[in-house]
Structures are given as structure tokens and as C-alpha cells.
Amino acid sequence: MTPWRAAAASLLLLFAPAVWATEHCGGATAWQVLGSGGPELNGRAQSGHVLWLDGKARALFDAGAGTAVAFGKEGGRIEDLHVIALSHLHSDHSADLPAYLKAGVFGEREAPLPIFGPPAGGGFPSLDDWLAALIGAERSAYPYLGGFLHPDGAPFRIVPTTLSLRRGEITKVFDDGTTRLLATPVRHGPVPALAWQVEAGGHAVVYLGDTDAREPALTGLAKDADLLVANLAIPEDSDDEVANALHAPPSRIARLAAQAGVRRLLLSHLMRRSEQDLPHALRVIAGIYAGPVDVAYDGQCLRLDARLNASDTRHTP
Questions:
Q1: What pTM value is reported for the model?
Q2: pLDDT by residue (tens digit) across 116-162?
Q3: Which domains does the chain possess?
Q4: How far is 52 from 45, CA to CA, in rounded Å?
Q5: Residues 214, 256: Cα–Cα separation, whole Å
Q6: What is the helix, strand, coil percentage profile of the chain, to 5?
Q7: R_g of the chain, CA atoms, integer Å
Q8: CA geometry: angle at 292 spanning 288 and 297, to 5°?
Q9: How far apart are CA 277 and CA 106, in angstroms?
Q10: What pLDDT sits at residue 308?
């Protein structure tokens, strides 16, 4: 037993862990919302989602504040993850990553864990430099987690990969035989950002992250996907120039969903301004996209093999 795990075991003898009631996605391929909010403190966990396959958490997309707690409550295990993909490095999409890593000390994972993320730009570091500043050295934010970047320095090693991809191209960045990831750069104001397609269990989900959704490549990325996860952060008639450069209005999201022929649309990253406009936004979307639309809430589980009624629109409970 490594010193890290020996210390963890000693703590477990002193403090019995709490038992959480979980709402598991079950054995089917499913997408679960860990955090449906944005950077506001509006009662929602911040941005994060997980793909389940055969009852196990397979791929994590973004790691905003509160998502690590949700991941554990829903039965997620660090040992089961094949990959972590970060759309960009805004704090509401990445702040909980140290919490996931620290939790891994108390598990049995030994295999390296790949983490993919964006390049530097717009005042933001690359994924590799961000991780170095976060856990990589004596003067990093969390130097005691630095062993995750080095062989034999922690229970398992993370393998970060900064993706400097060509705009307009869709690139396969990960494929372990059961889980495949494609990525393409997207516009999120000056912030380097990536959109993702994950394919597993014969199903495909596209996670846009934060973007103005103007990139033509997104139609190809989302083509015939089982689910398109789009962030509804602004109302249709937003006059906020900064927000408009960062996010897509409902009509643009709907056009992408319609043009790509996706089976289902999930609206996440809800903010006060978009929640207040939600009835209008749903009417706008329904006038363009004919498929079923879900409005995300924390803990929501969407089975990708479920039979869908195209006239259904599911609202936040």
C-alpha cells in the first residue's frame, strides 16, 4: 500500500463516511448533468456532465464547482473514468478538478488518467501550464497534489494533453476501443475553447461547452447525434455585447440542432437572465427545431437509448 493510501485508510478508521442516497443512471448508456449552472450562485452546481456506460462513469466533461460532490452522490468512481475533457478554463468549468484528484487518493485507481483541454490564449494558460500552476510545483496552488503529474508520485498519474487544433477541423483525440472523443475549436470570445463529441456504447453525444456556436464545423460534429448539450446562458434578445460574444442565443442553438439532425437537445448552463426568458426561449427553439428539448437540472439523467416523443419538452422541476 502506498503512503498516500495508508494515510487515507487511517482516516477512514477514525471517521465513518456518510452514506448518500443515489439516483443512478443504471446500466444503459446515459448522460447525466452534474451541474446545470454557470458562474452565478443561483442554487445550481456549476458546469459539469458525465457519460455513463454499463453502469460506470466513463467520461467527465467539465468540472465546475459542486460537480465533484454530485459525481460522488450519483455513484461515480474515479477508478472508472477513462478520460476527462475540459471545454475551457473558466472557473465555473474547471474549479473542482483538484477535488476529483484528491478524492482519487481514497480509491483504488492505478491506471493513468488522460485529461484534455484547450491551448493558451486570451490571457489564459494552456491546459498543461494551468495544471502546472495548480498542482505542479512548490509554489503552485496545491503543491501537495503535485505527485499526480509524476510517475509513482501519487496513487495514479494524470496525463494532460493540450489540444492546439485547426479551426474548422474535427479531430479524433482519444480512442481506447470503447470510448472515442472528437474535438473542434469554438469561439467563446477571447477564451480558447473546445466542443466535444463522445461516442460510446453505440451512441454519440455532442457537448458544446460555452460558445457563440458560429463555427460551421459544429454541424458536422453534431451530425445525427443522439444528444446535443448546449449552454443557454443568454436570452434571445440579449443586448449585452460581451455576453453575446461568449454565448449563443436560443435561435442559433436551435438552428444547429435542426441542421445537424440531432435526436434530442439539452439546454444547460442556466443563468438568471436565461431562466427569466426561458418560456420565450423555448418558443423560439420550438419554431426551428422539431425534436424533444430538455431543460437541465442537477442530477438529471438522460438515457440515450430511451424512446422519445418529439412533441415533449421537459422543464426544470
A1: 0.91
A2: 999 999 999 999 999 999 999 889 999 999 999 998 889 999 999 99
A3: 23-86+167-314 (3.60.15.10)
A4: 19
A5: 9
A6: 25, 25, 50
A7: 19
A8: 115
A9: 43
A10: 59
